Amino acid sequence: MxxxxxxxxxxxxxxxxxxxxxxxGDKDYYKPPYGKHxxxxxxxxxxxxLEAQKKVKKDDCCKTSCQHSINDLLHEEKKSKKDTIxxxxxxDCKPFKGSGVTKYRCHSKHSKLKCVETFVFKVKELDKKxxxxxxxxxxxxxxNASKEKRLxxxxxxxxxxxxxxxxxxxxxxxxxxSCFCAISCLPAVRLDx
Length: 193
What we know:
The model is unreliable at 1-31 (pLDDT under 50). The protein has a 3-stranded antiparallel β-sheet. Strands 7-8-9 form a 3-stranded antiparallel β-sheet. The chain has a two-stranded antiparallel ribbon with strand order 1-2. The protein has helices spanning 41-56, 66-75, 139-143, 154-158, and strands at residues 18-19, 30-31, 87-91, 94-95, 98-104, 112-118, 120-127, 130-138, 166-176, 182-185. The chain is an alpha+beta fold. The protein has one domain. The longest helix is centred in the N-terminal third of the chain and has 16 residues, at 41-56.
């Protein structure tokens, strides 16, 4: 099943689609809650995540479902101040692993390069059919960088990790959203920049 939308047909059961009152006679016609509809359902979800993140955080630095995470972010109690919905993307029915490079200094005057790989992302911007995604990782992965083994699956990366240890890397990549066929959201979290 794809994500394309045809009149009278829904190939998924997202309960976050709202009824379009202008289409009263067509009970199967639904629209995304955030005003726009793209040809690609991953774009719909990413736009919802981005709008929710923007509502709770004005200035952005570079039993789970996506709707549950969006609702959790928008309706959570004020004390925790969640600001991010991390997610995993899939292309060709496989989890997408993004990679990028940053520089750091460690007990030296000289800067070094570090490659970061991850299956977990935060949406930063959407522009037509492209998105800017920040690579997210866990604190212990940053500390144990030299001992780090290559990640083979999202489960290798996230199993038994503390939610509060998820951090932004500051590394962003630009992706073509037409390459992705699915998205899986993690629970909403607060990320420190």
